[in-house]
Structures
1.
Amino acid sequence: MIDLHSHTVESDGTYTPAELVEAACRIRLEALGITDHDIFAGFDQALPLARQRGLDLVCGIELSTRAPFGRGQKTVHMLGYFLNGGPSDGFRGWVGRLLASRRERNIRLIRSLNEHGVEISLGEVEAMGRSLTGRPHFARVLMNKGYVKSTEEAFRRYLAESAPSFVERDSPAIEDAIREVAAGGGVSVIAHPVRLGFRRPDEEERFIAGLMEKGLRGIEVWHSDHSAAATARYLALAEKLGMLKTGGTDFHGGNKPGLQLGTGRDGNMSIPRAVLDELREHAAVVR
Ligand code: AMP
Ligand code: FE
Ligand code: FE
Ligand code: ZN
């Protein structure tokens, strides 16, 4: 069993890189992918520990990108996997600049929450994380201060795109992110496609095929939010389009309760090692 999608405290997970490596070894994962949002610090710290423990560690990243959608735009999560030798220095630099745009968003989000009657400061949310502050850290503070009872409520009332206090982030266009990942030595994969929210499979296929023309290489077929039917649909789609297949739980520790490393939600996942072998075999082929 492998898990190619997980988060550490360096982004919005609650496990330190060392704790995540330990947890992976405890459940005998054959490979672990660390895919923090916008940062490699978790992977970098985990790598020597994984080597000591004989754990096959895969370098990844999850990027929030903008894609054209109907008449507007939509935020689309994209995974980058660096299977041969890690990301280039150029790509690390590009990712560093994304972090700066996130900080700027956080300042505006604090201001917006203040305007909506919430007493919260940047220092309080930044204290919740390490290198990066994300909305789950805001959710924690809102809970600790008694504004909401759960993460879900924090997003629904204050942090989700539909909430009145929500603020946009200046995120890269998906085609730029795809190009940067490729130039940095990686392959790009559409994360948890079920969250794109398509009701019609033909429209979903057209959207993903359009991204493939821009250089997208794979689909996250297995994800803890995917039903058995959705997984089967994405597997068939990846094969039809000739795309790479990846999968993972999207483990965030206590920031996404009810989700286990490796096995997902109530044991709804078990990704065989062969998925990674195939990925490595085909990822090297430049297109
Ligand atoms: P950010 O990257 O700071 O904009 O925060 C995005 C992260 O917030 C996602 O990766 C999820 O971990 C989390 N998130 C987004 N929407 C929700 C939601 N409705 N409920 C819980 N967590 C969410
Ligand atoms: Fe997250
Ligand atoms: Fe995501
Ligand atoms: Zn994720």
2.
Amino acid sequence: MAEITETAIRKVLDTVIDPVTGRSVAALGMVSGIATRAGHVAVTLEVDPARGTALEPLRQACEQAIRAMPGVLSATAVMTAERAAPSPPPPPAGHHGHSHGAPAAKTTPGKTTGGGGRIDVPGVKHIIAVASGKGGVGKSTTAVNLALGLAANGLTTGLLDADIYGPSMPRMLGVTEKPESADGKMLKPIEKYGLKTMSIGYIVNEDTPMIWRGPMVSSALEQMLRDVQWGELDVLVVDMPPGTGDAQLTLAQRVALAGAVIVSTPQDIALVDARKGLNMFRKVAVPVLGIVENMSYFLCPHCGERSEIFGHGGAREEADKLGVPFLGEIPLHLDIRTTSDSGHPIVVSKPDSAHAQAYKNIAGRVWKQLSANQRGARKAPNIVVQ
Ligand code: ADP
């Protein structure tokens, strides 16, 4: 079989043209990683977050072009994004309230509860945030599978997609219905795979561009926490907007979080971002439950061999250095992408797979900490609960 070289792949990607700019994927410098193994090719594409899901056809075109190369048995293209949140106006310094002059989020249902205190949800024992320093690292994939892993461990679990810049739960959970309200005030969460879920994406079209200002982010999230009938939950997993800007800081500050899980890829640059995420939670005294290393290594879907595209183990070392738990590593694997992008996350669609087990183990570690914290036996001395 002819050897498939990185140069040959780049040459092919030089023929895939982005219709918007008229330039090739290679010429645009989108190709940030290439791995090949016995005829199986994986590439990562660094994309402009502003274009989001609009780039899906281009991603598919890349896969097709590579698949057409002689000797190629399978091709996977994964998009990652340095997704800077639209810069919101800074939240009012020194106090938690949101400005009364700010427009309320028109696209969210229910009443505006207003007020600036801490957002707590009665009946929910622990609210945890899944966060990342930048977009495209697999935060949402991790949040979904972590929530399903908690449910698989026998816990009553909810999942709130607070990533209002790019809600992904409708796609990842395959939800097409709209949430209902019995009394016109409270929304019923949509139950899927044993989880109670809510996403702004259930209410507005995924392709509708939304421009959010800091205070609007806060009030949209507040409504999704307060105006949804979550009922009794052991854990509510919140998929945070990516990044560490003011909007994220305000959320971390206002929601009564029991802890945060940081998702990072092993690339050094992503780890720098992960550190920013960590510092953000520390600043607002939210315990960091640990770091998950996603796309840790490339696991060939056919021969099972691993290649460490980005260098591996960075997150574990970083976690040790920073004194936070390392929760586990998840490989870059075709099954994880296809299952989560088709609405059947791997923890439910392939519950006996090694990947599902890895997510369940991470969930077990998270729960262990939450239940230990509940008993007041938390070890980490550098964390203060307000
Ligand atoms: P984020 O929430 O950080 O923006 P997503 O969870 O939406 O990232 O993931 C971005 C893309 O990468 C999605 O297409 C997703 O299916 C894919 N992906 C995430 N984690 C993995 C993984 N471990 N292996 C393969 N693909 C992955």
3.
Amino acid sequence: MTILVTGGAGFIGSNYVLDWLAQSDETVVNLDKLSYAGNLQNLASLQDNPRHVFVKGDIGDASLVPALLAQHQPRAVVNFAAESHVDRSIHGPGEFVQNNIVGTFQLLESVRSYWGALAAPAKSDFRFLHVSTDEVYGSLHKGDPAFTETHTYEPNSPYSASKAASDHLVRAWHHTYGLPVLTTNCSNNYGPYHFPEKLIPLVIVNALAGKTLPVYGDGQQIRDWLYVKDHCSAIRRVLEGGKPGETYNVGGWNEKANLDIVRTICGLLDSLKPRADGKPYADQIAFVTDRPGHDRRYAIDARKIERELGWKPAESFETGIAKTVAWYLSNQDWVANVQSGGYRDWVATQYGSAATAA
Ligand code: NAD
Ligand code: TYD
């Protein structure tokens, strides 16, 4: 059996592909357009693995995707592909509309056509799993209950609005055409291979480089953090047992203010890799201008996935962040390659033309 994963060279997608191949005997066709966020070095350990088929391409490509589906006959599609950084969406929303909305629309159309022609039981067993975010629900005030699956959609950034639009398309393709879809709305992830434009990896990388640690506004914005491997296990569980048409919120029950996150990382680095001058890394913290429209608080109520599918995160924030800091300390080459842009040459160097072949 085969699954098609989109966006599998990004942060969460590459963790998912690595976990999937380690835990099942199925083949993964990995379709990724290798935007700045796609890094095949994350998958270097799979270079000789015949069960990993990498294809460089766009989910919105109406020739390539149908050809891939016809060739590989996947039993499921897991859609991670998206532009994912809120700050970039503020500077350039067009890419988010194109990749996240138009791309998902086109992918749904390609999948609908493939699925429609499947014979029983492949047709009823097929699943399209759309990976989304808690940011579609908007911002909570202190004391508000956490987001449930029935919370109103109130996206505030171009990123969250584009994800909300894609969620609506996925929902409509189920209700109108019967496509067996599943949607997961997950809180902020962190862990290995996280691109250092996002808060946690940026702080680790900047701290070690002696740079400032930029905290937006007052640093009291709250996010609900989940270790990336726990997100991967939740997606596996939803794919296996989720009910078509349903959405599942995924979270780590770890609400933390940004400033506390930054201080925790500084404390870990103080013990694991003390500064040469003996001063604390927290001295590098700098409060900077706030992000426009900055959502104040996200919090996920993850009781449905626990009740219905028996999923719970394995990591606490304390264990997950310790693993993450340790990973960045022992993968300085990965960081250096990302910072130099060297990872972008990896496709040509390591995969040659095979990486672009359908
Ligand atoms: P990422 O930016 O690290 O990776 C995205 C990947 O998708 C990249 O490899 C990129 O090349 C690829 N991609 C983008 N547009 C594409 C297109 N049109 N066709 C093919 N490939 C394309 O993102 P991430 O943090 O790994 O997030 C993955 C998914 O999970 C996204 O859909 C995101 O909205 C969702 N999500 C992320 C978080 C988080 O905290 N990072 C939390 C909840 C949900
Ligand atoms: P980020 O990792 O970009 O994820 P998201 O915006 O999707 O939640 O940011 C997490 C939080 O950290 C968010 O409240 C913005 C804040 N932040 C900073 O304070 N400084 C930074 O340099 C970055 C990148 C984010």
4.
Amino acid sequence: MNYRHAFHAGNFADVMKHAVLARILTYLAEKPAPYRVIDTHAGAGVYDLAGPEAARTGEWRDGIGRLRAASLDDETRVLLTPYLDAVASFNTGDKLEKYPGSPAIARAMMRSQDRLVACELEPQASVALARSLGRDPRAKAIAIDGWTALTAYIPPKERRGLVLIDPPFEQPDEFSKLANGLEAAHRKWSTGIFMLWYPIKDDDAVNAFVRKLTRARIAKSLRLELHLATAKDENPGLRGSGLIVVNPPWTLYDEMTMLLPRLAKVLTRNDKTAATVEWLATEVSR
Ligand code: SAM
């Protein structure tokens, strides 16, 4: 396990992922009944943007740095407020020194009745995660393989909530692990909301993944993508960020249709941007 999220914390992919996470948690909090968040690949919790890792790549400057500096229209600001408030709660004033990862954002947004299970296998990150969650009785950091946790911890007793699956994509088989993991988890908890992140670097891998999900007969999945450069660009690195949201809140399609193109504009490195918001049609085999 070589991946360290500290190098990438707050980059454009985190901004997209965490803005969607915050929309989903806002929706879940509309009802008083408790919800549970299960974060299978949680990372270290909170990241120091002045630390050596973040400083070396500076990726956050093109992500949360740009977003915080942007002038946003009212509609966009309203949709981003839960996310931006969560980020602000880790910082003082306008200075941006810390960036909260997914478990920290979830914890910042949860109510007293909600619960978080955050799984992280890399030893250093897992110690940092436990430290960042502190003694909060609502939140548990567990050093367990996220793929095992995915099926072991569901369905949660609350029967409503979100599973975030955000692997590091270090291994060539991670796209198929993601698709197979979702299929197995969805069989155990067909009404849960699942949010899966994937990198947009290799179009063939993404297309094969989406085809596999389409064949999996998982009803109601939303495909969200932010493309910041085209495949032909020189040295494009991570060209885009993708999310599949299974059982999305009914509000999410409209929210993302509005928000993603605007986010793409704010986060662009070279004006070549596109946003995708589409339902994955279920393939019916006869
Ligand atoms: N979800 C985090 C966020 O949004 O802030 C970022 C997670 S990062 C992309 C992926 C994390 O998964 C890394 O911290 C890595 O150490 C961890 N990881 C890698 N393999 C794992 C496994 N099998 N089980 C749990 N965590 C794992």
